[in-house]
Specification:
Layout lengths: L1 E6 L10 H10 L4 E8 L7 E4 L12 E8 L4 E5 L10 E8 L2 E9 L18 H14 L9 E6 L11 H13 L3 E2 L12 E6 L1 E9 L2 E2 L2 E2 L5 E8 L2
Helix pairs in contact: 2-3
Length: about 240
C-alpha cells in the first residue's frame, strides 16, 4: 500500500510544471494521493474528490485547497461547507487502499498569515491557523469512529520537529494527533528539506518514506517538497 502527499501550488494544466509533477507522483504508484493547492483539471489520473471551492480568498474557479485521488471509487464523502475555518480546507471519504478499505482525510491548515494582510484581513498572525486546529475535532471525530484504518494528510504548515513555527500551534497539532492515537508517519523524515506536507495514520504501520523532490533543472516545480509512504495494515 502506498500514498503520496504533496502540494502542487495550483499548477495549471498547460503550465511548465504539471506534467513533471504528475509523472513523479505516478512513478511511486500510490493507491491514494492527498494533494493540496491543486487545479481540478490538473491532477493525476484516478477517482478525485475535492474540498469546497470557497476558503475565503478569491481564486480560479477550478482551484481547490485540498484533494484526494484514489485508484478506486469513493463513498461516504464529506466536503465541509460550514464556513471558516474548515470550509475549503477539509475533505474526506472511504476508498480501497491496497487490500483494505480506509478512511482518508485531507486537510490544508491555514498558514500563519492567513487572512492577515490578504484575504478577509480580519485576523492576527496564526489566529486562523489555531482556529482551524480547534475546529478540526468536530469534523474529524465523527468520521473516524468506524473502526476502519485512517489516513490523515495534507499541508500542515509545520515541520516536525518544530523549527520556526508558533510553539503553541505546533503543540496543538501534536496533542490533537496523540489524543486520537494517530502516528505521525512523517515525523523526522529521513531526507533533507523543509517538509510541510505530512501524513498521520491510525490502524496502519508506515514503512519506507520517500522524498518527492520539487526541483527540476535548477527551478522549482512547486514551493513544497512532497513525500510518499509505504503502509501496511496493523494486524
Amino acid at each position: 500500500m502506498k500514498t503520496a502527499v504533496w502540494n502542487f501550488e495550483f499548477a495549471p494544466p498547460r503550465g511548465k510544471a504539471i506534467s513533471e509533477l504528475r509523472r513523479r507522483v505516478t512513478a511511486v504508484q500510490p493507491d491514494v494521493c492527498i494533494l493540496s493547492e491543486v487545479r481540478m483539471d490538473a491532477v493525476p489520473a484516478g477517482h478525485a474528490i475535492f474540498a469546497h471551492s470557497d476558503w475565503g480568498y478569491a481564486s480560479h474557479a477550478r482551484a481547490r485547497k485540498i484533494s484526494l485521488i484514489s485508484a478506486h471509487p469513493w463513498r461516504e464523502t464529506v466536503q465541509h461547507t460550514g464556513g471558516r475555518p474548515l470550509q475549503g480546507r477539509f475533505v474526506s471519504g472511504v476508498t480501497r487502499v491496497g487490500p483494505i478499505d480506509c478512511v482518508v482525510i485531507g486537510i490544508c491548515i491555514p498558514w500563519s498569515f492567513c487572512h492577515v494582510s490578504s484575504g478577509q484581513r480580519d485576523q492576527a498572525r496564526w489566529d486562523e491557523h489555531k482556529a482551524f486546529i480547534r475546529a478540526l475535532p468536530d469534523a474529524l471525530d465523527p468520521i473516524t469512529q468506524s473502526g476502519l484504518p485512517v489516513l490523515l494528510g495534507g499541508d500542515f504548515n509545520h515541520t516536525f520537529p518544530r523549527v520556526k513555527s508558533d510553539a503553541e500551534a505546533h503543540q496543538m497539532i501534536v496533542e490533537l494527533l496523540e489524543d486520537r492515537d494517530f502516528k505521525l508517519a512523517t515525523d523526522a523524515a529521513p531526507f533533507e528539506g523543509r517538509l510541510l506536507n505530512h501524513l498521520a495514520v491510525r490502524g496502519l504501520r508506515c514503512g519506507d518514506i520517500l522524498k518527492l523532490d520539487n526541483m527540476s533543472d535548477g527551478r522549482q516545480l512547486t514551493d513544497h517538497i512532497g513525500v510518499a509512504a509505504e503502509l501496511t495494515p496493523v494486524a
